[in-house]
Amino acid sequence: MALDNIEKLIEKYFDATTTLAEEKELKAYFSSDNVAPPLEQYKPIFGYAVQAKHEQFTGAIPLKAKKSHTVLWLSVAASVVVLLGVGFFTFNHYSQPVSEDFGTYDDPEVAFRETQKALEMISQSVNAGIESMDYLSEYEQSKNIIFK
Q1: Closest-CA residue to 47 (of 65, 67, 33, 64)
Q2: Deepest in the core among 22, 36, 37, 134, taking most CB within 10 A?
Q3: pTM reported for the whole predicted model
Q4: What are the tens digits of pLDDT across the range 64-82?
Q5: Is 1 helix (H, G, I), strand (E, B) or coil?
Q6: What single DSSP character describes residue 62?
Q7: Taking a C-beta distance cutoff of 8 angstroms, is the pair 76, 85 a contact?
């Protein structure tokens, strides 16, 4: 084979544009004894494919791995813990008496005072949130000064 033809094929091989026939040609060339000295560096690349073709796995592959008793008991214990947790939750959740009192009032004055208390609590929470927004506006001003 012509040296320039092999060099072109090597270049195509590294560009990943070779066909299977061209790759077979390269493998055949590099597995032969008459490789040109400038191309000796590529011999291990193409020689590996020929060598790997003859390798064979001779070990035994286990079809089914045996579970140890520890793993079996751990899975049983985990199942029992989950069942106990679900049972405890449902027992506590459904055994509590259901209150029919939904916060209704017969006296409008009492209802008004209780509504004012509830709105005051909400107002305090909203005001606390607004106070924390002051930090954001200060950050925004600093950012605008720095990143003009």
Answers
A1: 33
A2: 22
A3: 0.36
A4: 766 677 888 889 999 999 9
A5: coil
A6: -
A7: no
